[in-house]
């Protein structure tokens, strides 16, 4: 287990104290004495605490609050992108040419893996996507929650707990927790239509061009209904249609050079509906529930096949072809529960279900081993994941003569998960009549179909018990302790704990900190994902691809059943508030052991020993998931806000927020129980992705202004340099540092109708272009590791009407 040195802890504490004191002093010198001392906006949060809801400035750990209005006052209507614009510690990359990850893009918190952040809806566990990311994007090897399955119209606010919370919420909460709180309305409603597109100058390494693409239309609607005298039902819906973008470079293989690939946002056609309800019952009890459904069709491009490609069939595509990978994702979720009083305890019983199904198609393609008789469109298989969770939570306050009541909480969570892989149609993976030719690749070009040998139907159960106590020893000092025990049917049990404290020196100055252990159970996707393709080896058909760690193929190479990741989190921070100004500064260190990653492909050609192990299995090369990566992450989060109301110029809301983050890989798996010498199990490129794949510095400064019917927002976001690693250090390239400026103007025609016009990335900033020497086919015009994408300037108009 990695633990921070005394010097590291001292450095973190010193940085927090110095920054807090210097900022507080600066504010004391410049704040107007006439500022209203009571106009501070106290956002109420329920995340990270089991006591009565408290303001974000009164919590024992840092919690960001993003209102639904803030999310909607953005150019993008993609929820994950809008949230990343609001929270510096959150990064949402837009990978391209990464198969299914183009359609279901993961977000990262504090530079950690996407699946190390727990996502809740109304404080209950959200299900993950069926997709496991197996290509070269940030988050490779993870199976994360798809944040874009929730429309912003359905939300009241988002709370992001930036602290380890496994002892409070269970598996996955290593980096923190994102809690999506749904809108609760008995009446009223609203509708909006947003249209936007990119108008940009694309300067790649081999040339420049102007583009107007990515046309996006988003329509959203919500309406509140009364249920009885006090109950509510809120229904919301959203439809999104987006055209693709293309930022590929010129292809030097064709004369004259031309764009043959498509790197950028995929084409999307998506609709989503959500409902949230609550109804008081007799004797102080309340019933509640929600349900949501999304249907998303996405089309992204694979690498182009030129006319002279060995796997092209000129009779079908005389000019070559660009395979299209289709992803049809259907996402279903729902929850129901009751809460009330049992013998003086506040009790909450809930049952939550979630299911994600992903159907793959490969279009505008062919299977070269069928020659001119090949199909051009293929059904390529399906992934399905679902989760059923029962929760029972109990809280009670006890008066014991302290400055306030002790709050005691306890409960359980029981979870059942299933994971399935179903094969595609035979032509998507078979070797056809020409399959004996080793120069021809079998299966659909661009995305090889899932085979019957890849079929999976697995499940597991888990039960967790927790206890949490919060003690206000004095009116200044509050301490909280939490303990959790979980048992999984596949790998056994895990125990985690957390100790937090807060000391309020004055009503304006507080110090807070925590120490916790955490864990993340290996997902079923990581444990059982299988995808192989067939190749010819010495005249025989053999397989190559990804195998479960418990499969005979992986076992002969020394793989072991996956174990949970574990972590130790340390944090210390300060809270300052003076009138309309508040500032939080929080330093942290997160040490992770046994992180689960996807190994490199181990080929039979590596050594005679590997060949002797794989040949009897009919395998040419194999990779699998394994434990063994250890990382240490250190950083500081700073969030400052100042609200200023004037009599003539209007109301201003200024925010400056920053995340400074450093991830270091301390160890990687370098041994196998059977192989000698041992092949590279985790390559340098993977290490660099973890260490340099997200920005070490991200700073956002924004100003919101309203006056009568006018309003506006200006926002500047600075992104530190990010590296996209190559096969060697000489092949690495980076995004460079950039600052993006976004502006929006709003006019309220009536109390109901409003118009907004804005431009994101006003100055058309791009990451540094991919060097021509590293881009022989012209596909990657820009690094897809860019934390803000690579699409350029985006203009939009939004018309909204409140009922």
Category by helix and strand content: mainly beta
Query: How many domains would you count in the coordinates?
Result: 1
Overall shape:
globular
Query: What distance separates the N and C termini?
Result: 57 Å
* CATH architectural label: Beta Barrel
Strand content: over 45%
User: Could you tell me the number of beta strands?
Assistant: 37
Looking at the structure, the CATH topology is Maltoporin, Chain A
Tell me about the largest β-sheet: 22 strands, antiparallel, barrel
The level 1 CATH classification is Mainly Beta
Keywords, separated by commas or semicolons:
single chain; 803 residues; mainly beta; Maltoporin, Chain A; 22-stranded antiparallel β-barrel; five-stranded mixed β-sheet; disordered N terminus
Can you characterise this structure?
- This protein is mainly beta and 803 residues long.
- The protein has one domain (6-802): Maltoporin, Chain A (Beta Barrel), CATH 2.40.170.20.
- It is built from 8 helices and 37 strands.
- It has a 22-stranded antiparallel beta barrel.
- β6 and β7 form a beta hairpin.
- The longest helix has 25 residues, at 6-30.
- Mean pLDDT is 92; it is low at 1-41.
